[in-house]
Design goal:
By secondary structure, this protein is an alpha/beta fold. The protein is built from ten helices and ten strands.
């Protein structure tokens, strides 16, 4: 039985190259939803406020995420929001040792959240196989670094220059405008030499967007699958969840799982999440319901 037969009414996204080798793992995005774990080696991170800033804590968290079933681990050295300036040397000094340690202990896909070409180059040399750029190639040199490697690039929608706010962001048609932006950035990446099978797009939940705008973006997520690339949904514990439910960050797990599930059903093929085990279970359950994964122990009523 195919996935479409098992789930009538579910529209499978038309991904041009669904089977991909990323790092040391192979993904079939026609039948798989990958879970990206988050490790922030920053003293002022959005969610954990520096809990994994120390090198040993960051490595421990990354290895634990892989052991809990994460398909890949995203390592960041600078938060997206405005804050103290950090040089490329300092940022690389935060993320590269974590990449090196994790690569030695696991075959999990390793991505680095950066917009700086110097950091990306050092991270790839250390073992990273994905560069997660939340600025939509604000620095075009980043595309050149990825193009001359085997790494995959995540192209994300955001309006501002790196780490700069956009007061009261306005969109006349958020779905159309975000799709147009991503299409333009993807075309630019292709022109720079990055093959289509090494590109992923992220509509940028909450990035220069209000809660109402992000909710509409989520409802319209299927529109971004028309680009023919895997869509990443980074929804975990974000403000649109907190403001929708009136919940502080420690109380947003249920909302995060619900948002990730909605995104997966609308076509997202990677979800970026803090709570690894719960998120892995949720996505594996989605796969089982859609007929992509056999039940682990189907003995009920036999």
């Amino acid at each position: 039985m195919t996935s479409l037969e098992a789930a009538p009414g579910f529209r499978l996204p038309a991904i041009s190259t669904p089977v991909r080798r990323i790092g040391r793992r192979t993904f079939d995005f026609d039948r798989q939803i990958a879970v990206m774990a988050i490790v922030n080696r920053t003293p002022d991170s959005f969610y954990d406020q520096g809990a994994t800033f120390a090198l040993d804590r960051a490595v421990e968290a990354a290895v634990a995420a892989a052991s809990a079933g994460a398909d890949w681990v995203d390592i960041g050295g600078v938060k997206f929001a405005p804050g103290p300036e950090l040089s490329a040397v300092e940022e690389a000094g935060r993320v590269v040792p974590v990449v090196e340690a994790l690569a030695q202990q696991s075959d999990v896909v390793i991505s680095v959240d950066t917009f700086r070409p110097e950091v990306a180059e050092a991270a790839i040399a250390a073992g990273a196989s994905v560069i997660n750029d939340t600025t939509g190639l604000a620095d075009p040199r980043l595309a050149d670094v990825v193009a001359t490697s085997d790494a995959t690039l995540v192209v994300t929608h955001s309006l501002a220059a790196p780490r700069q706010p956009v007061p009261r962001p306005h969109y006349d048609d958020i779905g159309g405008e975000v799709a147009e932006f991503l299409r333009g950035r993807v075309d630019f990446a292709l022109e720079r030499g990055i093959p289509e099978e090494r590109l992923i797009v992220d509509p940028g939940h909450d990035l220069n967007k209000s809660t109402v705008q992000t909710l509409e973006l989520t409802r319209r997520l299927a529109e971004f699958t028309t680009l023919g690339l895997p869509v990443l949904a980074a929804v975990s514990n974000k403000d649109f969840i907190g403001e929708s439910l009136e919940r502080e960050k420690p109380e947003r797990l249920a909302g995060s799982i619900a948002a990730a599930t909605v995104c997966a059903m609308l076509g997202a093929r990677i979800v970026r999440m803090h709570a690894v085990r719960e998120s892995v279970d949720a996505m594996r359950m989605v796969e089982a319901v859609l007929g992509w994964r056999e039940p682990a122990n189907p003995v009920h009523n036999l």
